[in-house]
User: Which sequence fits this backbone?
């Protein structure tokens, strides 16, 4: 395969993997993958600070055409902290590790 590197636009964070899987002999393998970014926003409504995520950029999927589409989003209010998966000759598992976003106010 080829190396692939993509980054979110400035000020955005990864919140979802998307792509497609399909058959290869006896296995289901990853055909292509991309990710979705979100923009964190801080607001102070009624005197209570809140951190929200607004839709951001979507990367072009890399890989081959075909397969069945999938999306692997982080839970609401969380962002990607890592990638996990597995492969032999082909990639057959991939997903995001996510953690909740935390807001720490400094006086």
Assistant:
């Amino acid at each position: 395969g080829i190396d692939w590197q993509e980054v979110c636009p400035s000020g955005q964070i990864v919140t979802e993997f998307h792509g497609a899987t399909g058959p290869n002999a006896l296995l289901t393998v990853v055909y292509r993958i991309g990710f979705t970014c979100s923009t964190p926003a801080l607001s102070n409504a009624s005197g209570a600070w809140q951190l929200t995520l607004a839709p951001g950029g979507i990367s072009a999927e890399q890989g081959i055409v075909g397969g069945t589409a999938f999306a692997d989003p982080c839970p609401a209010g969380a962002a990607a902290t890592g990638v996990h998966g597995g492969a032999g000759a082909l990639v057959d598992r991939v997903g995001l590790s996510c953690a909740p976003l935390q807001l720490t106010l400094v006086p």
